[in-house]
Amino acid sequence: MESLEELHQDMGGEFGSTLRKFLEKLPDRLDAIANAVEQRDPNQSSKAAHQLKGVAATMGADRFSALCSELEAVGRAGPGPQRWQASGVYF
User: Fold this and answer.
1) What digits encode the pLDDT tens for the residues 34-58?
2) Do 33 and 89 touch, CB atoms closer than 8 A?
3) Rounded to whole angstroms, how far apart are CA atoms 27 and 13?
4) How many CB atoms lie within 10 A of CB 22?
């Protein structure tokens, strides 16, 4: 995807406020994923990872978005020791 500089050029004056919103909401979004994993709720972890994946992709955070995509897929697969252990997440 685009570099931050390219993204900044494309978004113009909206870039700063969009980046700020992303960073402000990031802890809550990560907490939602962590809580779902802690509660052993693969469906909720998948939903939370999906939301964060889209926002990260929009901000050009491709690696982070890819990690969220992996977690989303693991959550959709449902509980199963082999799937979760391979991802480092245990349900």
Assistant:
1) 998 888 888 999 999 999 999 898 8
2) no
3) 24
4) 16
Residue 8: half-sphere exposure toward Cβ, Cα within 13 Å: 5
What is the rounded CA–CA span in Å between residue 58 and residue 52? 10
Cα angle 39, 55, 40 (rounded to 5 degrees) comes to 10
What the block records as the tokens of 76 is 């959709």
Supply the DSSP symbol for 79.
S
User: What phi and psi values does residue 71 have, to the nearest 5 degrees?
Assistant: -65, -40
Domain that holds residue 9: 4-87
- Residue labelled with tokens 């349900």: 91
Q: Which residue has the tokens 């962590």?
A: 34
pTM value is 0.72
Radius of gyration of the chain (CA): 15
Q: How many domains does the chain have?
A: 1
